[in-house]
Structures are given as structure tokens and as C-alpha cells.
Write a structure and sequence with these properties.
Length: 332
């Protein structure tokens, strides 16, 4: 927070003589009731009013401080700022086909992948990161950006029910997922360009084969890290039935040969992720990649922020008046 008129803070120095005046005034004040002997009052219980005797003075001090802050005009910063940061360009390509509902990873494959990938995004604030999702077709959920708050919001909105809602056709088009991500990275000036492809199946849809897409990625100097998600053998899959859900063990069919070939062709790496720790290995490798400088323009809008302090001053003043005319009212 910034203050437009910081010179008004010098007014706070006036509180020092005011406090001294209050202390000296109370010392010289004569008692309101004269008695010959106070022995009878020595063990008398104190009223709660004794603890509130200085409350009006404290409230008045607080009011004055709040008024000075209001005069100083607190406000947010408002400026365009060109900066250079160190980072790499990354596109996450995530399979959202219905098979990602399998619960061999908890709570399911997609949610487990989202959780680990979100932690990765948060841990790399300087990277230019985007998001592609694919099933039988692919599209860009979020173009590359350093505004990771927006990216995370869009990322958390990914659901496998996109297929059921007709937003995307079911299937696994690995080649289309890579091609879509390449289209976002091909014009990048970064020294390191990476696609992290996460899928749990075998390519069975799309107009571009996975190896063809890998050739395209290689021609643009893009590394592809492929992740085959799912346990070996069989996985529990939720099947909706009348009145609930029934779990069936379905075979895990991941084309590891193709995924490994894609990674090898593009100088990337292939990972079999049977748990969250396996996913984290990918991100540790990416941390070792060479970084490049990116020009970023930051913008923040200025808002006058005095309203809160003004409200606090009014409330404090009203409380002081209320105490003086009720609980702490003095009889002349």
C-alpha cells in the first residue's frame, strides 16, 4: 500500500503533547467525593467501569490516528513495469478421456495429476506455462502465460465429465494433443521449450499420429516429456448403475513403446507414473533445464483505500460518545 500525502503523518507528533496533557490533568484532578477515611473502601469490589475509565481517551487517540491515515490518502500502486525474469516455456498436455476416472491413483487419475501439476505450477512462478487438454480431439484450455492464478483456475476446472456433456469426444488422440501444444510453442524465443504429455491410454483417435506429431515438435526444438499414468495390470473403474456406482477392474492399456519413442525422438524422457512420486520426478528433471530471459509487463490498478480507515474513525468516535453519555456519564 502507498500513501499519496505522506507529510500528513507528521500530525501524529501532536499526539505526544495531547497524551502528556491527559496524564497531567488526571493527576491534578480533585476527587468528586470527599470522605474522612477510605478504610471502608479498601476491600470493596471494583466495578467494570473502573477498567473503562480511560476507554474514551484511547478511542479518541485511535480516531485521530485513523483521520491522519485518511488525510495521507492510502492507495494501491498503479504502474506499468517492464521486467526481465528467468524461465522456460512449457505446455501441459493432459488427457481428459473417461478412462482418467480410474481410481488406481487417489482420488482418481485426473485429480491426482491435477494436484501434483498444480504444485509444480506454483513452484515455478517465472515460467511461461500453458495448458492443452485432449481426448479424441484437442484444444487449448489456456495459452502460455506467467499469470499462474488464471492458469490454475482454468486447470482446476478440468473435469472428465466434459465428454458426458458433449464438450469433447471420448477417445485418446495423443498426436493431436502434441500438435496442439506445438502450435503454442513453435514461435517461442525461449531456449528451452517443453511439452509435458500426460495420458493413460493408447492412441486411438485423431488425424495426426503420435510419432508424426513428435517429428513436428523436434523440428521446432521442443522436448516432449511423456507420462503414462496408471498402475500395471488392472485398475478399479467406477461404473454408474441404478442407485449408485459399481466398481469394475479394467485392464490398464498404455502404449509405453509409443510414448517412449516420442520422448526419445524429441530428447525428452518417458515416465511410468503409478503414484504421485513418479509424477514429481518429471518436474525435478525440468528444473534442470536451461532457462531464458523473458520480458514481462506487470500492471496494477490504483484504488483509493481510505474508506476502511474512515469507517474505523467514525465507529471509534461513536463508541467514545456512547460511553460518555451512558456508562461513563459524569454527574456535575
Amino acid at each position: 500500500m502507498m500513501f499519496a500525502n505522506t507529510e500528513y503523518f507528521f500530525l501524529l507528533l501532536l499526539l505526544v503533547p495531547y497524551i502528556l496533557w491527559y496524564v497531567l490533568k488526571n493527576k491534578k484532578k480533585e476527587p468528586t467525593l470527599l470522605v474522612s477515611n477510605t478504610t471502608a473502601y479498601r476491600f470493596a469490589p471494583k466495578s467494570y467501569k473502573n477498567h473503562l475509565i480511560h476507554a474514551p481517551f484511547i478511542l479518541r487517540l485511535f480516531t485521530l490516528v485513523m483521520l491522519v491515515i485518511v488525510l495521507a490518502r492510502p492507495q494501491t500502486n498503479n504502474s506499468w513495469k517492464d521486467t526481465q525474469i528467468e524461465g522456460i516455456d512449457i505446455m501441459l498436455a493432459v488427457d481428459v478421456s473417461t478412462s482418467m476416472l480410474a481410481e488406481d491413483l487417489k482420488p482418481n487419475r485426473l485429480e491426482a495429476a491435477k494436484r501434483v501439476a498444480s504444485e509444480f505450477i506454483v513452484g515455478r512462478p517465472n515460467d511461461n506455462i500453458g495448458l492443452t487438454i485432449f481426448a479424441a480431439e484437442a484444444f487449448t484450455q489456456c495459452p502460455m502465460t506467467t499469470d499462474h492464478a488464471i492458469l490454475l483456475n482454468l486447470f482446476q476446472g478440468i473435469k472428465t465429465d466434459m465428454v458426458q456433456r458433449g464438450m469433447i469426444q471420448d477417445g485418446t488422440a495423443v498426436g493431436m494433443g502434441i500438435a496442439n501444444a506445438v502450435s503454442r510453442l513453435k514461435d517461442s524465443k525461449a531456449k528451452s521449450k517443453v511439452i509435458i504429455l500426460l495420458t493413460d491410454g493408447t492412441n486411438n483417435a485423431g488425424d495426426i499420429s503420435p510419432l508424426t506429431a513428435a517429428e513436428i515438435a523436434k523440428s521446432f526444438g521442443i522436448r516432449v516429456y511423456t507420462i503414462g499414468v496408471g498402475t500395471n495390470g488392472q485398475a478399479p473403474y467406477p461404473m454408474p448403475v441404478a442407485g449408485g456406482v459399481q466398481y469394475l477392474n479394467v485392464p490398464v492399456e498404455i502404449d509405453t513403446n509409443t510414448l517412449a519413442a516420442i520422448a526419445e525422438k524429441t530428447d525428452g524422457e518417458f515416465y511410468r507414473a503409478t503414484d504421485n512420486k513418479s509424477l514429481e520426478e518429471v518436474y525435478r528433471d525440468i528444473d534442470k533445464l536451461e532457462k531464458t530471459k523473458l520480458n514481462v509487463k506487470l500492471y496494477s490498478k490504483r484504488y483509493e483505500a481510505y474508506a476502511l480507515f474512515a469507517c474505523l474513525a467514525i465507529i471509534a468516535l461513536l463508541l467514545e460518545v456512547l460511553l460518555r453519555i451512558t456508562i461513563l456519564k459524569r454527574i456535575p
